[in-house]
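Recap quiz, item 2
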Amino acid sequence: MSCSCNEFSRASLFRRSVAEAGRGLPAIEPGMPLPAGSGLDRRSFLARTAGLALAVYGAGKLPLGLFDEGIARAQSAGGPILVSVFLEGGADSLSMLFPAGNTRYHQLRPTLALQPNEGSPFSEDARLRWHPSLAPLAELHDEGKVTVLPAVGYTNADQSHFTSRHYWEVGATDAHLRTGWLGRYLDVAGAMDNPLQGLALSSSLHPALASANVPVACVSRIDEYDFWAAGVWGPVQQRMLDALGTFPPGSSAATRKAAEVTTQVARLRGQLLPFDGGNWGSPVPYPPGRNAFPARLAGLAAIIAAGLPLRCVSVNAPGMYDTHADQAGELTDSLALTANTLRAFQRDLEARGIADRVLVHVWSEFGRRGEENGSDGTDHGAAGIGLLIGSRVRGQMLGEFPGLETGLDNDGNLMATFDYRTLYCSLLEQWFATDAAQIIPNAAGFPRVPLLR
Amino acid sequence: MPVYRGAFGRKEAERLLWRAGFGPRPGEAARVARKGLKGAVDGLVYPPLIRMTGKAPTDEDGAPIAPRDAWGHDHLWWLDRMVRTNQPLVERMTLIWHDWFATSNEGVGSQKWMLTQNQTMRTNALGSFERLLLALTHDPAMLIWLNGNQNTRWDPNENYARELMELFTLGAGQGYTEDDVREQARALTGWRNDWREGLGDVNFRYDANRHDGGVKVIFGQSGRFNWIDACRLCLRHPAHARFFVRKLWSYFIPTPPPAATEAALRTLYRRSGYQIRPVVSAILRHPGLYTGPRMVKPPAVQVAGMLRARNRTVDTEVWSWVSELDGQRLFLPPNVAGWNEDRWLDTSTMRGRWTAANYVALPYALDTDQWRGKLSLDPSKLVDSALSFWGTPTIAPESRQALTTFAATALGDADQSWERAEYPVLIVNALRLLIAVSPDYVTC
């Protein structure tokens, strides 16, 4: 990975810190918006019915015990689920779906241009080919399960990671909006007692899920709560884990706290045991390795199948797409892991018979500059690529690839042929059957396009 | 100033070594106990010349670490100092200043500048708080972190000014106003640096042209104040001494100081000319340290202490990622307020402590092939064996009972003769980890 973008690391620091409601955070560059959800209170609880240790946001006034009942009651709901997958840093659409053999492309990208024989053809536009690492998505596209948005964005694109991401997260080009577009949807359609309705698979809440009223939740890994002890196994190991819950409280507040926590550890360990080591019972293989993304999606499929009452889920794709330098290698590896995992997730849902309930939206805060820079990388651009994946999508391109001859703006960035708010409004109304006017500012100003079959 | 007059035995020495350092090496608690309270405290506050004991830190392959460049090696570098130093209080005070003036490499983006700041904190660890404060006010990492390098007379940035008063010298809302924040920011203007491609932030310097030379009104006084005045005005503010002694006290003793003690510490601090050493020395001799309640060990302290207990040096990179599980990755405090000492323990960070203990114990795990049939079948003896692994730390009888019950129960599962031969080996391995996360061992 290579990120020479100072603004980017500061922005990501700020975002991480927001969930802590910390003070004295490093200053954001002048004019940058605060992330949605800043200042939401956070509490933790264990959803016993779900076996999940959750950080719950925006739940200050409600007793945590209420959520257990809410989750249990909502468990059989079986409604549609939207999974938002974020390519962080501004993914290069001109690599993901590249204009093969285009003269201008090779002029702009003398070292980074992919060769005309690489990857596979994109059946909806003869000018374009899929990045070789995206072969799994090309396969799903051939099956009609991927809708491509080759140049999605908004006019006058902001080239700050922070600001542009914020616009996508809140569903408006408004620096002052403090709730996420999914959070506002949940405020309209969600429940006061079901934090799982908005779930970030992350160590901190994603701002798109920030709601004004209803609780939402966050969990990093539910499959990694193991207590490896070298040279301990079998019945002794189980006795050891049981013994964790038997320490006496001692005579001081610190020992009481320690004993309380070890007791919680023993209980939680027992509850998460069914999921230990990614024991999801996945009917299909997921990509191996240490990256959390495959395990997160494998776990997600399992808990959807188990009937947990999810509606909106957010997760970051592996990799860092702010490829100012050494772009080719980073993209090859990250896109491969992302695409292989997304295909596995789709196959998993299909095998479990729940594919009709899930729709995946892949997005990034912007695309990248048409012309490469001097460090084998590319700088921030404007329009980028978006994808909708699932058994219910129409699988027909939304917007078009504007071409490099006339499709670049004055800064040399790809111009958007499709507005992201059109996508949001259409998703809300067609996937969630909810009036977008309640959720997206100026929703009437955006057309609607058919998304589902 | 009240001084502890009770017995100073192994138990008291053990607590002192954990609170003012990183726990005892094997046999050290008994040795320190023999020096008596005064000798023990003096040995910490007036340390011998620096000497690092044992092998220099390496990765798994025995290669030297690269603290300025390699990911996580900054953490390893400091952990190594905690483990091998013969000046544990200096190192512990450095950790306290890292929390007090919490600066995160997430915002700084340079291990080199973080380590430079770390050395500044170490150099001034027990000296003058005024010198420490002045040095940190124009420390490169701090200038980046709290935007001191963007604070100009044309466009004042209040970030450092606010934290200077709120977190570093006075306390939130303690005798300053929003006007004081703005005026302090003006006084602090002038620091800058350059950005060089490939090198990052370089050439930190004071640029008089960026400084606002006008009159400022701070705490009701007016003058053409500069950055030195900004710091000194805070130190001379009536609220500072109280803030300083209470905050410093809180790192060593979990209950606030009695009013008379606090007043005496304030006087000591002011009369010494803002010296840190006499205040720390008085706290370390205070009865509250020996007779008061226990404290949770900061995770970095426990990990360093477990390595010290084993006389093991840093010989693997695992500590970097383990620290992210246990809740204290050095150089990455959660925010400018530092770590929240009330929140060290939760179900996630406890798993981190467990993981750390397992990696400390890993090379020493007893092997059933080697130890089959050679260990006692007496649960109490197995507990003794596991305690001795950690240098026989003090443990409450009730906790010992829980460990003995585990050993007895697990032994009771052994029906076959091979199980009776092997289970004691597994049980000792398990007991070592249970001890490491016991309420007794995670506190001191």
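The mean pLDDT of chain B is 95.
Residues 52-291 of chain B form one domain.
End of item.
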